[in-house]
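Following up on my earlier thread - several people asked me to post the actual chain instead of describing it. Fair enough. Here it is, all 294 residues.
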Amino acid sequence: MKIIDGKKIANDIKEEIANEVKQIIEGGGKTPHLAAIIVGHDGASETYVGHKEKACTQVGFNSTVLRFEDDVAEDTLLRRVHELNEDSDIDGFIVQLPLPKHISDQKIIEAIAPKKDVDGFHPVNLGRMVIGLPAYISATPAGIMELIERYNIETSGKEVVVIGRSNIVGKPISILLAQKTNPGNATVTITHSRTKNLKEVVSKADIVIAALGNAEFLTADMVKEGATVIDVGITRVKSDKTKSGWKLLGDVKFDEVAEKAGWITPVPGGVGPMTIVSLLQNTLKASKREIYPE
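Reply from S.P.:
Thanks for posting it. Predicted structure:
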């Protein structure tokens, strides 16, 4: 078993980005600027946005956070999104999800200009990705692809099983791995709660991507010897063995699956650190107008 160290790769990429930003600024270019809208006081959202701000500082980006209370009107939020679309100093921005129930996530996502949609959630970016055009790829799938590439994990001709069909992870990563790219050219099966004989299907996979948000769902008896296992899940559970009283578990029962896996990502320290880095990579592309030249 070999560990896929997302923390190390994320730090390597941040160093690469910082060096490029330094060169841009020394050459008289504009400092990349990432903004985030956050509504309410959800703990997980606050943590993510805090990590984003810290990462921006580390690589030399400008960072702005716009905060709204839970009772903000949808129209007010939409107006702020349109203002960011028109703000030439903001290269890209995200709207932290989930939003309060009275606000339509999809309406807000579709209001973001595709050229500033560094989360990669807008239908235009998703559509461009599907047909192989340059696009902003959502952070987690992009991070998974980066890990696979940097660890030289072969995907061509391999059997991949994705557990989970979300628009944020399951669907995009299945498309990316099936495309005529490197990494890519895999035979991909998407599984979910209605899949029959799930254990049988998963046990044939050379690469398993667990992205369903169910703590320790994937057990050793579901994984074939030598398989690569990518754990996207992250669930906070109570623990009397930590100072905080909580610990993080992935979708994979790590200790027992690790004994059979060829490669495996830990939780924490695997896919998680790559999400912020992928957001930084998209913002740098946006500042350089790589995807949508003007």
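The chain has a mean pLDDT of 95. That should answer part of your original question.
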